[in-house]
């Protein structure tokens, strides 16, 4: 008899490698809640890989590589994603310009959540923020679509940096590399005597960045 294996869908994982003032501080890994917010998650994932070329409205690469965290507020959040202006005025989505709020299913009820920054209702582009505390006043205003699964220490390090009166860190906090971590399943016979004895080994491999 043959054995059938049911493949379980897993949410995408993406990463930022971060430097402060030119010095590496580590990697932040996110899980994107594609099961709950597929449109918003795909926007962030594709901006991490840079696979979609130039933006329709900015004419800049749709890519988080080189972005800075331009706004840091202690005991609240860190914000980035403006790949065109670098100051919170720019950026755009992979869909061209902005897109609608997908849903408000998830709440800002804990630290290390990934949520969309916006300029009002249905104005999601490329800017995002990571919470460092629960922020219930943002519920039903900003779309939560992921969370930090590794590198929480990096987030807290950024949160504690000295900033100017515009809440911008005095030293640039830059994403120097980013991409997607792809889950691959490899099957292997445990023993030669039985084809039924198979184990699956899961490894994350780095999807090569498109330059």
UniProtKB/TrEMBL annotation:
Q: Name one Pfam family in it.
A: Pro_isomerase
Q: Which reaction does it catalyse?
A: [protein]-peptidylproline (omega=180) = [protein]-peptidylproline (omega=0)
Q: What are the alphabetically sorted keywords of the record?
A: Isomerase, Rotamase
EC number, as in UniProt: 5.2.1.8
Q: Name one GO molecular function term.
A: cyclosporin A binding
Where does the source fall among the domains of life?
Answer: Eukaryota
Q: Please describe what this protein does.
A: PPIases accelerate the folding of proteins. It catalyzes the cis-trans isomerization of proline imidic peptide bonds in oligopeptides.
State the family named in the UniProt similarity comment for this chain: Belongs to the cyclophilin-type PPIase family.
What protein name applies here?
Peptidyl-prolyl cis-trans isomerase
């Amino acid at each position: 008899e043959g054995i059938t294996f049911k493949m379980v869908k897993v949410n995408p994982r993406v990463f930022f490698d971060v430097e402060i003032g030119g010095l590496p501080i580590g990697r932040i890994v996110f899980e994107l809640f594609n099961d709950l917010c597929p449109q918003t998650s795909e926007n962030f994932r594709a901006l991490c890989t840079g696979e979609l070329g130039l933006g329709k409205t900015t004419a800049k690469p749709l890519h988080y590589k080189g972005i800075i965290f331009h706004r840091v507020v202690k005991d609240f959040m860190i914000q980035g994603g403006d790949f065109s202006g670098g100051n919170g005025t720019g950026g755009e989505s992979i869909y061209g310009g902005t897109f609608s709020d997908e849903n408000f299913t998830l709440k800002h009820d804990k630290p290390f959540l990934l949520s969309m920054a916006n300029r009002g209702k249905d104005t999601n582009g490329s800017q995002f923020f990571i919470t460092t505390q629960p922020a219930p006043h943002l519920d039903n205003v900003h779309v939560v679509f992921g969370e930090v699964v590794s590198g929480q220490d990096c987030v807290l390090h950024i949160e504690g940096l000295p900033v100017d009166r515009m809440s911008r860190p005095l030293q640039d906090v830059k994403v120097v590399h980013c991409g997607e971590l792809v889950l691959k399943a490899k099957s292997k016979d445990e023993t030669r005597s039985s084809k039924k004895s198979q184990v699956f080994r899961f490894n994350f491999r780095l999807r090569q960045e498109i330059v």
